[in-house]
């Protein structure tokens, strides 16, 4: 196949949270682009193995590695294992995240710590540990959320959008830092997307209401977000860095 049909051939990609939701869709999409994909997961080995099997059945290459990327020690282990096996990292997708919803009077220290450890500390130290093994032309993709900008955001998103605000500022600073190595850093901010994390606990009526906030009258699909990530991971995005791309169908 031509390089245009497999633009990621020869690339080693790590997708944290790669066994479910947007991470799963991204793992599959990068593999279709020719990348060797490291599917990171924290607990559900069967889900990660299913993604690997789907990739390998399609003649792609993937492995699953368990690591809790809210822990610097586990992050270091993940990066060391990838480098020991493949010798490099070309694409780092920091997709793992958590969304604990509570209004101010209900927020606990545990809520805060779990949210910021996974959503903020994780991407920061993943990038720090991976960067020495990334050559010029490599890619880092972070994740925020449209809820960090939406007028419709509700009060119970407090710690979640605070963590994503931190990611957006991290994106700005890291893009300056890693530009010296020829590495791009960008941030994708999905709108409401049909993942298990988003759908959990929501009634069908609530989902329809949320869809109604979008001018297209629907919520997004994980595969649509994965296409955005694939572009930012590709050679075509060589002059795109430090950007926050709202992937939300035009939702304000």
Protein described:
- InterPro entries: NAD(P)-bd_dom_sf (IPR036291), SDR_fam (IPR002347).
- GO terms for molecular function: oxidoreductase activity, acting on CH-OH group of donors.
- Belongs to the short-chain dehydrogenases/reductases (SDR) family.
- Pfam families: adh_short_C2.
- Keywords: NADP, Oxidoreductase.
- By secondary structure, the protein is of the alpha/beta class.
- It has a single domain, classed as Rossmann fold, CATH 3.40.50.
- The chain has 8 helices and 7 strands, in the order βαβαβαβαβαβαααβ.
- A 7-stranded parallel sheet has the order 3-2-1-4-5-6-7, with helices on both faces.
- β1, α1 and β2 form a beta-alpha-beta unit.
- α1 runs parallel beside α2, α3 runs parallel beside α4 and α4 runs parallel beside α5.
- The longest helix is centred in the middle third of the chain and has 22 residues.
- The protein starts with 11 loop residues before the first strand and ends in a 5-residue tail after the last strand.
